[in-house]
Amino acid sequence: MGIVSLFADITHEGARSLIGPYLGLLGASATAVGIISGLGEFIGYGLRLLTGYLSDKTRRYWLFTFLGYGMDLFAVPLLALAGRWEIAAMLIIMERTGKAIRKPSKDTLMSYAARNVGSGKGFAIAEVLDQIGAVSGPVILSLILLFKSGDKLANYRFAFAILLIPALITLILLLISRLNFPQPEKFEVKEETINFEGISKSYWLYLVAISLIAAGFADFPLLAFHFQRIDIFSPTMIPFMYAIAMGVDAVSALIFGLFYDKVGVTSLIIASSLSIFFSPFSFLSNSSLVVILGVILWGIGMGAQESILKSVVADIVTPEKRGTAYGFFNAIFGFFWFIGSAIMGVLYDHTIVSLVIFSMIVESAAVFTLFLLKSKLGNAVN
What we know:
The chain is an all-alpha fold. The protein is 81% helix and 0% strand. Helix 5 packs antiparallel against helix 6, helix 6 runs antiparallel to helix 11 and helix 6 packs antiparallel against helix 14.
């Protein structure tokens, strides 16, 4: 499944590296880009509340995984046919919807195996494989744009069309995975889960913390939109910047995932503290080196989110309710990602400084909340 994710990420993370500039070329404003990317994430996360519940109810985890991958992978190459930014926006939302259908089921399937080696380590290894694809996709598209001449919009469309190839490979590999491991729940290690009875306030604090993390974290399409607007990188370098972020994501996911198995929430506090500074470095500087540092800090934040947040759920929820738990957790995260992205898009059109202030205040509040959470949990997950 990690290899499945590798090829899937070549497809949709490759596309994600170009979505911001592509929408801009089709006539979208920064506000529109912020709302579209935020709405896509909201649907992609919020719908998981329903799909997670249904997957637990039916126990058809493989079915939901196949349906979701089929929808999100084919939405990407269809972007090549979009003639208006509104049509592109619909396809972006379709891709996120597909992810919402498959994600709780896929995470549940992988959680069974991850519990054998330590949840932090298991999801970290999966994230590394995932991010190899996330790096490869933008690099491939960057090279395509580098060697293509002529109309920029036509080149972007050609790049999206090429992504049909890894999409088809993904579905073939997914079928192989299903044939080889029809019942991955047999991997589950029967262990006593952490008893959260009597510390419900800590659970709500955890939701508040991840909501703040999501609200203050700009989606990459807005960063890419900004890079194109200030002309700090050439069009071929923008997807390469995303590749750098995904590479950092992979490394930080492995480091903080392993760290989580040893120190718990402290690993998330450290990662979130570092990522606070992605916004001033990315949005306020005219130095390419400083902007690259901002992209690196953005990647650190993403890596920690992808590994640690899933690990906590795997450790505290029983297997038969895990799909529902992933769905609910992601719905909250996605809602606040949407709110934050929309606000930052509007603030960008007003003043970039206001966007940076908003992001730093919200991310700092998230770190403060995580400290409160750590003190309340005590040794429960540490």
